[in-house]
Amino acid sequence: MNTQNIQSKSLQEHVIDTAAKHWIYRFFPRWLWPYAQLARWDKPIGWQLLLWPCWWSLTLAPISCVLAERAAQTSAIPSPWYFFLFLIGAIVMRGAGCTYNDLIDHHIDKAVKRTCSRPLPSEQITRNKAKIFIILQLIIGLIVLLQFNSFTILLGLASLIIVAIYPFMKRISNWPQLFLALSFNWGALLGWTAFFGTLNIQPILLYLGAVFWTIGYDTIYAHQDKKDDALIGVGSTARLFAERTKPALFCLYSLMLVFTTTSFILSHVSSIMLSIMFFVAIHMLFQIKSVDIDNPNECLRIFKSNSFIGLLIFLMLILDNLRIV
Q: Within 10 A of 89 (CB to CB), how many other CB atoms are there?
């Protein structure tokens, strides 16, 4: 049996909640595997969904700028360096958030089939090592944040308040997805402030739209664990909505479309490019129609498909930027 098969077999036996064939298990030394799993480096969907609102906001700002009085004082196109910074920031801060969440949910994860084999509940790594790992990730995140203007730095630091309380929300409410969404989409504000150094109504509307989007897709994700969540007594919107999930998704996704489209209109996105939002709506309707909330694999597939929505909106804004160059 070759090394790759041994690694895959080992992971399949001991780490349920991981992608056994991911490249990190071929190229990383074995002692790094638990850290990769803590940071979810083998699950890129998380940082992708975190990144899209950052890049939406960053590409939306110059479209708004070109028709504003500030156009004379501001570069029309954001620096590629900013796109890179948000990419690194999304990967690192998503990893830090997952590590923190695993520390808080250590004992809960032991009782959930999908998460019981993660590094902390399975004792592949100690809590002290996980804490050191968080600190290292936060240092990198801080270095990234310090590359921006002072307003963006302060706004970015403020997001840590929501990040800190999120893991506890499932213990006291059925709305942990709301608090995840509030923290997860902070980049919709930061992309704009990185460009302008201030906030306006457009990024706030964009942020609210992304919040409703995240509550929707994370509700689908949460249906994977609803039986275990019920047994251990933690809340989620999946449990709250239950058989009313599809109507709830329709409302959440509709609000996402209303808020984001309004933001785009106020930012002077062209009518031709705005038509792409029709395809975003079609994709969301397809999710609602096709998702089987009692099939965990189907829930995961539909959840992951939301990265296509992120990409579609980003491409719409990039293409609209071309007309102002």
A: 25
